[in-house]
Amino acid sequence: MSQPEEKPKGDPWHAFGYITAGVAFYGLLGWLADRWLGTDFIVAVGILFGAALGIYQTAARFRIDPPEPPNSSEQDKLK
């Protein structure tokens, strides 16, 4: 008996959306912090953090759980 193929848990456009939204949101926060503090590097940190968070969210959403091992009591009944 073959196992049914696992399908991703969402639309691939969600991956694009997570990464784009992370970059845009944290880039904007970094830009605002730069304006407020008079610096010019926090926007880059925000963009990188947003991209990393978007990739993490994508990996968590599309992760396929491994199949559970069969119950040992069921195997004993088959013997």
Q: What do you see in this structure?
A:
The protein is 68% helix and 0% strand. It starts with 11 loop residues before the first helix and ends with a helix. The longest helix has 26 residues, at 12-37. The protein has helices at 12-37, 42-62, 72-78. With 79 residues, it is mainly α. The mean pLDDT is 83. The protein has a domain at 12-62.
Strand share of the residues? under 5%
Q: Total number of β-strand segments?
A: 0
Major β-sheet profile:
none
Secondary structure: helix percent: 55-70%
The poorly predicted ranges are none
Structural class: mainly alpha
The pLDDT mean sits at 83
List SSEs in N-to-C order: HHH
Question: What characteristics describe this protein?
Answer:
79 residues, elongated, 68% helix, single chain, 0% strand
Please sum up the structure shown.
It comes from Nocardioides simplex (Arthrobacter simplex). Helix content is 68%, strand content 0%. It is mostly helical and 79 residues long.
Topology summary:
Blueprint: H1 12-37, H2 42-62, H3 72-78
Helix pairs in contact: 1-2
Transmembrane segments: 12-31, 37-56
Keywords: Membrane, Transmembrane, Transmembrane helix
Protein name: AtpZ/AtpI family protein
